[in-house]
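Box 3.1 A note on notation
Throughout this textbook, protein chains are presented in two layers. The first layer is the amino acid sequence; the second is a token string describing backbone geometry. Keep the layers aligned when reading.
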Amino acid sequence: MRAKSRHHLRSDEVRAIEERLAERLGVDLAGETYERVDLEGTEFDLVLVDGDPEICYVDGDPFPTVRGANRLDPERRIVTVDAGAVSFVSDGADVMRPGIVAADEAITEGDLVLVAEETHSKVLAVGRALIDGSEMAGDSGRVVGSVHHVGDDLYEFGV
């Protein structure tokens, strides 16, 4: 994954990102510098916050990367999985119903969500909800499609 271009964001662009993340996840981004990085060969573009890849654009919409989510400690749009699901989710697998121990009931189908493990609440992946949060727990079926996960190219960017 290589950077195609980089540019600093204007204050109105930064404000829009901060407001969007506060509204969706209940987080305060609060960085000093914001730089957009357009990437080659990927569907993502990044925003470096104080030099760290903390925000990615998914379908044109800003959302925290796994690294960013773990720093920001979000309050909403979280799907929590049990220990048995951790290795699968960390390898990029979609989230299946049997592995879910909790899901934000405000999640609606199509929302971007954060997938966290239950022991330490660390975010393992970013995904797209395939169903509403209130319907996620159960016996079988895919409920979150993986978009970005620990160890993928986006996670490793700039390391």
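The chain has two domains: 2-71, 72-155. Residues 2-71 form a domain with the Nuclear Transport Factor 2; Chain: A, fold (CATH 3.10.450.120).
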